[in-house]
Amino acid sequence: MAACRSLVRQCVINLRSSRPLSHSLRQLPRCNPLSRSYATSVAAAELRFGQPLHETHPHILSAGELTPGITALEYAQRRSKLANKLPKGAIAVLAASEVKYRAQGIFNEYRQDSNFFYLTGFNEPNALAIIGNDGSGDNHIFHLYVREKDPKAELWDGARSGTQAAVDVFNADETGNIERIGDILPSIVQGATEVYSDIPTFDGSRSSLNRYLYGPTLASEKLKKVVDHRRVKPLKNLLNEMRVFKSEDEVVQMRRLGQASGRAFTEAMRQDFTREKDLYSFLEYQFKVNGCDTNAFVPVVAGGQNALAIHYTRNDDVLKDGDLVLVDGGGEWGGYISDITRTWPVNGKFSDPQRDLYNAVLKVHRSCLALCRETSKLSLDKLHSIAENGLKDELKSLGFDISGNALNVLFPHHLGHYVGLDVHDCPGYSRGYDLKAGQCITIEPGIYVPNDERWPAHFRGIGIRIEDSVCVGDEHPIVLTPEAVKEVADIEALRN
Predict the structure, then answer these.
(1) Which of 390, 387, 439 is nearest to 417 (CA)?
(2) Same-domain status, 224 and 306
(3) 201-251, pLDDT tens digit by residue?
(4) Residue 151 Cα distances to 17, 126, 156, 169, 379, angstroms
(5) Which residues form the Aminopeptidase P N-terminal domain (predicted)?
(6) Is 312 left (phi over 0), alpha (psi -120 to 50) or beta?
(7) Which residues face 285 on adjacent strands?
């Protein structure tokens, strides 16, 4: 573990100095050598797959990586770790996300189910993964059922990886055409001592998997007899316990992502915008220019009083000279996300009240960031209470009456959340547990002053939030997004 932390620190140093990521940071052996062949005789670089591989997209993936920053070996280690958490003979069953449609024949951008992606690295729809404890200790069984290659379908929808790649590339022990899963799955489930799954089909409700499980074959009746949803146990709790602790490579990838996203924010602060949607478009462009795949989520670009709505995403108003603009966004890269919020003056210069309130929030933000270390023995909930007390003191000094429910009105959301493959990572994992090294969270205090007589007149209508993503360290936090400037002097200097 000490070696892991040393490695992460060195990575952070390299990123801050803007040097290319050193190969010396990658100590793990590779599952996928450069010379990997496909179907025993054809070089992988000569074929087409449903997602980038190093052989086909060396500008995206380094040798050995299955997805950006994450090796095939790490995916195998994750599956082995999950298998060891299962009882002997038990299986975990996971389904890929389905394609979501905006209108008939018009699909939205695809995003894989985070748990499925975490264990497989496979980034296509209509797939099923089965991971089991075979009782051998370090080994595990891994079945991956996917869409078979189909030239006619691929003409319209692009390449598929197919069943051969499920074995050759994604390291499955067994594979098959997902169209036949209704015939295959019953016998696998029947032979398991226990079944862990969060797929709706297994808890008695319906899901898109019904197309395969409940089609016009006798397989539907077989499955109904074999799978008693009352004996299916939830899987997400086991995966939350794994996903909440980030590996060396995950932290390195999230740091790279934080650097790219932070630079996009700083570049946006340099510009002069008169409309929220223009700032939104520029920020999204900058995420991609800096290496990200897409937005992590629909950003908040809230000028003036629009910042009083925590999840304002219309982004269709004008930006007025003299107002602040609050921007909450981040890029996504290789499935991982960053989450940043910055607030800055539209004209590049803080007014006195804006500066006073901003510095109050920034002071609390910095003090909470400094506590993101295991030795603090604090949970996110405890950090939230520390932030509340800090904001009370700051607001008192600025003339606010913070009696009664004042702070709940002025600071209505939690200080932070877990972050990783999802914006709100590991859903259901308690914020009451003490933070441990390797966990990644956000720190985002804010103040939102309604436009009414209860509050000092010169602060009314101002909304300010400052947020960074951070990795909890042993004795020191690793801020993942420092390239997004946040000191008043630095923000104002960008326009000069």
Answers:
(1) 439
(2) no
(3) 665 555 656 666 655 444 445 555 556 677 789 999 999 999 999 999 999
(4) 47, 17, 9, 20, 52
(5) 70-206
(6) beta
(7) none
319 with 385, same domain? yes
Please, what sign has the CA dihedral across residues 324, 329, 330, 331?
negative
**DSSP state string for 285-314:** HHHHHTT-SEESSPPEEEEGGGGGSTT---
Domain extent, residue 88, equals 48-241
Are residues 289 and 375 both part of a single domain? yes
Burial status of residue 474 (CB atoms within 10 A of its CB: 0-12, 13-18, 19 or more): middle
User: Which two tokens mark 273?
Assistant: 């915008």
Q: How far apart are CA 172 and CA 79, in angstroms?
A: 11
The identity of residue 242, as a single letter, is M
CA 184 – CA 167 distance, rounded (Å): 17
Strand ranges in 402-473 using DSSP code E only, listed in sequence order: 440-443, 446-448, 463-465, 468-471
Number of domains present in the structure of the chain: 2
Q: Which residues contact 457 (CB under 8 A, 6 or more apart)?
A: none
Residues in the chain: 496
Q: What share of the chain is helix, strand, coil (3-state, %, to 5)?
A: 40, 15, 45
* Residue in the block written with tokens 């195998």: 76
Q: Are strands 195-197 and 232-233 parallel, antiparallel or unpaired?
A: parallel
Q: Which two tokens stand for residue 418?
A: 């877990």
Copy the structure tokens of residue 200.
């709706």
Q: Which of 186, 209, 241 is the last residue of a domain?
A: 241
pTM of the model: 0.89
Other C-beta atoms closer than 10 Å to the C-beta of 86 total 22
Question: What are 299-323's pLDDT values in tens digits?
Answer: 999 999 999 999 999 999 999 999 9
A 10 A CB-CB count for 429 gives 19
Q: Is 466 in contact with 307 (CB distance < 8 Å)?
A: no
* Alpha carbon distance 298, 102 (integer Å): 16
CB 79 within 8 A of CB 131: yes
- Which tokens sit at 193? 């001592």
